[in-house]
Amino acid sequence: RIQETFRYLMEDHIPYELRTTVVEPLHDEASILEMGQWLSSLTPGKKPAKLFLQSFVDRDSVCFAGLCAAGEDTMQHYVNLLRPYVGEVSLRGT
Known about the structure:
By secondary structure, this protein is an alpha/beta fold. Helices cover about 35% and strands about 15% of the residues. It has three helices and three strands, in the order αβαβαβ. It has helices at about 1-10, 30-40, 70-80, and strands at about 20, 50-55, 90. Strands 1-2-3 form a three-stranded parallel β-sheet, covered by helices on one side. Helix 2 (about 30-40) packs parallel to helix 3.
């Protein structure tokens, strides 16, 4: 169902925004590349219009301890990794 939803959105039926919150222990270069490749595989020949990468913010409501935001240089590196797969990649909240 997730793939079906993404395909529908990427066919421009309705305005959409893709966002990923980057969490240091959960994301790395390989997972970011895999995400970009997966997104581009959903609708061959058409890239998602826009993707925002946003920094993790620790709050009292976070269920797990030890999570932290990626550094600004790392976030920019992830943006550069995703550029071949997404029309526009931007940072939010850094």
